Amino acid sequence: MFKRTTDIMFSELPQLKDSGSALLAKAKGDRFIWGIVILLSLISILVVYSATGSLAYKKYHGNTEFFLFKQVAFSCVGLLVIYFLHQVNYSFFSRLATYFIIAAVPLLIYTWLFGAKINDGSRWLKIPIINLTIQTSDFARLALFMYLAKVLSKKQEVIKDFKQGFLPIITPVILICGFIFPANLSNAMLTGATALLIMYIGRVSIKHILLTIGVAMIPIALIVAVAIVTYNGNQAETDKPAVAEKIKSFGRFGTWVKRVQDFRYATDSAAPYQRQQANIAIANGSILFGVGPGNSTASNYLPQAYNDFIFAIIIEEYGLLGGAFILFIYVLFLYRCIRIYKKFPYAFGAFLALGLSFTLVIQALANMAVSVGWVPVTGVTLPLVSMGGSSYLFTCASIGIILSVGRNVEKLEGATTPVVPKVEPVVQPV
Amino acid sequence: MDIKDDILSRAYISLFVIIGICLFIIGKAAFIQQSQGKYWRNLNETLHQKTDTIIAERGTIFSEDGKMLSTSIPEFDIYIDFAAEGLRAEKGKKFYKNIDSLSIELNDLFGDYTAMEYRKILVGEYKKKTRYFQFKKHINYTEFKALNTFHLVKLGRNTSGFIVEVKNRRLNPYGNLAFRTIGLARDSFKVGLELSYDSLLKGISGTRTVRYIAGGVAVPVEDAIETETQNGKDIVTTIDVLTQEITENALHEMLFKNQAQYGCAVVMETKTGKIKAIANLGLDSAALLKSFNEKSEYREIKNYALYATEPGSTFKLATMITLLDDGKIKTTTPVDLQGGLWQFAPNATVTDAEAHGRGLVSAEEAFELSSNVGMAKMIWNNYANNPSAYINKLHSLRMDTVSGIDLVGERKPIFHKPGTRGWERTTLPWMAHGYNVSVTPLQTLTLYNAVANNGKMMKPYLVSSVRNEGVTVKEFQPTVLNEKICNDSALAAVRKCMIGVCHSSFGTAKKLFLNNPYLVAGKTGTSFVVDNKIRYSDKIYQSSFAGFFPADNPQYTCIVIVVNKASSPMHFGAEVAGPVFKEIADRLYTTYVKNSRSNQDIKYKNDAEAVSYNGYKEDAKYVLNKVNVKYQDNAGLASDWVATNINSKALQFNTLNTQKQSMPQLKGMNLKDAVFLCEEMGLKVVAKGKGKVKDQSIIEGAKISFGQVINIGLN
Lengths: 430, 715
Prior knowledge:
The structure holds 2 protein chains of 2 kinds.
Chain A: H1 22-26, H2 31-51, H3 53-60, H4 65-87, H5 91-114, E1 116-118, E2 121-127, E3 132-135, H6 136-154, H7 162-180, H8 185-201, H9 206-230, H10 242-248, H11 253-265, H12 273-284, H13 310-343, H14 347-372, H15 390-414
Antiparallel strand pairs in A: 1-2, 2-3
Helix pairs in contact in A: 2-4, 2-13, 4-15, 5-6, 5-7, 6-7, 6-8, 6-14, 7-8, 8-14, 9-11, 10-11, 12-13, 13-14, 14-15
Chain B: H1 3-35, H2 37-48, E1 49-54, E2 61-62, E3 68-80, H3 85-110, H4 115-128, E4 133-139, H5 141-147, H6 157-160, E5 162-171, H7 179-182, H8 192-196, H9 198-202, E6 206-213, E7 217-220, E8 234-237, H10 241-257, E9 262-269, E10 275-282, H11 285-289, H12 316-325, E11 334-336, E12 341-345, E13 348-351, E14 360-362, H13 363-368, H14 372-383, H15 387-396, H16 427-432, H17 441-452, E15 457-458, E16 463-468, E17 471-475, E18 480-482, H18 488-503, E19 521-528, E20 541-549, E21 556-563, H19 573-601, E22 614-616, H20 617-626, E23 631-633, E24 641-647, E25 650-655, H21 671-680, E26 684-688, E27 693-696, E28 709-714
Parallel strand pairs in B: 2-8, 23-25, 26-28
Antiparallel strand pairs in B: 1-6, 2-3, 3-4, 3-5, 6-7, 8-16, 9-10, 9-21, 11-14, 12-13, 15-18, 16-17, 19-20, 20-21, 22-24, 24-25, 27-28
Helix pairs in contact in B: 3-4, 10-19, 12-14, 12-18
């Protein structure tokens, strides 16, 4: 036997206080997701700094650091948003979802009628005091997917029933998409498609989903038809045919037609300018390496290089490998969110994590598909990477909500007694 | 399977679909990059890269004394593209916001339109969407810089639509001075030295590849193939601005006084063949029609010195040299002038210009009288059987070929040879007195210069060196065309004849050079002008005078040609061209010849005992007061400049003559005072040595002209 006094066992030593900062110690939820958020923020700062060179030159007389500081500031605010939201008990979002969805519809209508026009579309609402323009559709989407998580979790028992299951789910979707539609067709389509995917995952009848797609295709088919009929060979670029001119009087119809035409009829040499420049950016990179951070030249010419086409700049500067890495990060993010779902026993929380993560990743895919020319120019941002704005903050809000659910998973894994959410009923197995 | 697992499997299926889409995206990107990559990268270059030509700066033409005769300055042409994207953005918000301020600023700068007019013009063109509106041409650098700070313009090319084109404009700081000889350097039309030395002056334009970035700023692309721009070389001419001014003024005065059509005067440095001045003044066709011409209407239109005309009597020198060199005559050989009329053939009579009524005279007198009959007879008597001998001699005097001056556009002389179609029976006697032959004034000058230069014929030239960035890269040396044009006795004889023209009792120019302080050797000429428009009957006379001075030690050779108006009462060589020659000779003699002579005579003795101060009076007073030396001010208040004298025991100030126009005595002054005095009078000072002024190249009391160079030596 040793004498107790001769030595001290480690276990007897007092526990060290957490060496990291208090804030970091409190950051709960999936560590992978935290890591992804920070990694994407850093990439964002790098790429946005590089891609805004020309914009800064024009607007701030060569003060290129302006956007660097702006993006750093946005990243910090974004992280704070995530941090505070992930501290909120997720069940609170259940109530919030209902309020949000009720608020979203009048906001969309207001924006449609009185909103600020940026790039010809009235998608923006100016918040008076903080002087930030927000895209109401971003808010509406967040509200919609929170609400979908709520209804889907509640209606699982009657999910295959048209009246009791399908209608309550599809109504908010149609409402929100219908009101986003006049201002921003592509966003409406993207929101609708994402909603349908979430509905599929949430076990809504495939038959009902196909029916919805069928109905939704009617206006889209109309636009494509008009685009093809009114397309007038060489003159399309300069002179708008009289018919198209007339049709243009219906809100943004003309723009949609033009975009479809641009996409469908673009030959390599006559591709729209943005498309050309994006292709040049991609072509400037190589498989393994790009031209290197900050060396992008295409960003001088590529409109919205820091936003819609940021993926093209990433490929230019970091090569195809860099692009693939970004894709991998989003897939990893999605995988980690599915893992949260898997581990989380309560339906609303699980659906929340699933729904919001799919939304973000689909948005990311849409953005990158635009960058490489798979789909027409739509104007969606690359979540967490594109230059900061209201959509950046909404993305952070989504991630904060996901992490809030993730935090509960950790609690469940750590605690012997599960923390039972107050409001949420447990989903009964069928 | 429970609901959760069902949902999970659906989520996994979606995940795989998403991974699939990711692969598609990467695949598409790889396709763009790898299989279309080349196309896009090329497009990138063609869209954003441009090969810019950097036009080489044209070299400057300097006078011998380093003054710029012709130089290039940048000039800007401004165009506006009213369809510029940034200008039309948001329904022209920026345009309409700035247009008022811009109009006011434009009015302030240019003042050619009021602000309201500017606004009206710009708004009008804006509405028309003019793509390339010519807004302002030929604005200078200062204006261009100011323009760049204006509203709208400062927003850059893409927003404002303002396009700048830089051009180099050729500027002649001395205006009309030797204008035709210096020449023109327009893109499509060049004459004079600008043309002759164009390959040196223009330089080599370079290219560089630039990439346009935001704001229309061009950034050179690294590693791109570039060719260096080589700016044009500068050329230093032999022209001396002061001599040129003297020559031009003298000619101008006479042309205006005699209402002449045109004239030219060329001054050559005897020893080298350097053209020190070349003046060509004439009226253009519109001014010719008017009865009274303004002085300012005489301009440098044509380089008459390069055009061959019938020379008239100045050609008699060639005839005289031939006769003397071939030993056919002596100066004393008699010739019968027959009162100035010689019926050579039924329709051909040789007539002397002036009715002198003389009969038998010596050859020398015939020359001095400028007798056509005398010359024609002597040549006919000696060469009628062998005209080729005369022609060959003229050939050795280079009368049948261009002078070879380094100026493009020298016309060939018209020179007939025996046996050719142009050769007639009358050709030989008529050639003898300067008809049936055409030579350029420059050829005549070259011949006269050879006589002045002891028979050594020098090639006239205008460019003495080529410089690159201030460093001389090539120097042109005087070229000898003919080492000896005739034997020494013939040379001496012909010089004597030429001096006789100016100073003997028979000489045609004797009145002109009466009591001249230096000897002049020359020949007058009066001839009818004939060309395809003018006939003998129009009585248009060409008056000429060619000669050199001082005849005992020739420094300069000069020719003056004046073509008078029809039936001008004053038309004799000695009346019209002679005074121009004399004016030039007088000025050059006092400025260059006399002083260099007198300087050689001045001997200085070192003065160790008496310290003399010549300079500014107040300075002297100040110093003397400080050291308590008494002085006596004889100069009074009249003069600020004094010379000191030690008279018995008192120090005296005496007035120093510092009147303008005449050279003060600089001796004894310090450099500061000397330079101040000289520059105040418009002299250019070249100083050598240290201490006080020892000698000065322009002697005290001499008449000085603005811009003259004075050399002062210090000891």
